[in-house]
């Protein structure tokens, strides 16, 4: 048991997540979501209504900083729900939020360019078995990096998985959580991930309309560029963790994306 308040004992249990820094604290009927050493960015996300409300921040005797958020009785979105207008609206709010951008800048984050993404992926590709699909993908990223560069960088979540979207119990409040990989980049980074994973290709234009964008040739190139980059990023990660089934799926994705990229360039 841990004592957060005088006279009130809280039982702590792991709340999942890759970092092992998230916990559920419960005392009677009360529940809190506790995170250890989370970024000051959390306070701005809470103020903007993008994550469940931040209740308090405490520095412990050992130097750790704990944050407590309201425990949300809700559920994660299903893959089908990711194409909803509500998701498009929250993502647009995130991508146009000046307070979020200002805070990430204060935390020392620098805008990420296509050239930097390309260089990182090209480095990661070294020493791996060079398949035709991998070579074709890297060449596409190289040939079009300058064309796909977008000057207006905003805050991107960079892991738009449906498990990171939480819907409140009454299905009114939608939140996007797990901001550890947040970057300042082209919003197309997030849009590409969401469209490729959750929206049928023939519905891309309609979904982008919900978000507030016209699906023109320039946007199409930015989206496919980030789709290819994202696929390589995840493929390399699964290779490093020897997850063969996932590797095969991402290699299959890469073949389709390479064909799509070749089409839009001609």
Automatic annotation (TrEMBL):
The keyword NADP does not apply. GO terms for molecular function: transferase activity. InterPro entries: Aminoglycoside_PTrfase, CcrZ_PhaseVar_Mediator, Kinase-like_dom_sf. Residues 41-209 form the Aminoglycoside phosphotransferase domain. This is Phosphotransferase. The lineage of its organism: Bacteria, Bacillati, Bacillota, Bacilli, Bacillales. It holds the Pfam family APH. Keywords: Transferase. The keyword Phosphoprotein does not apply.
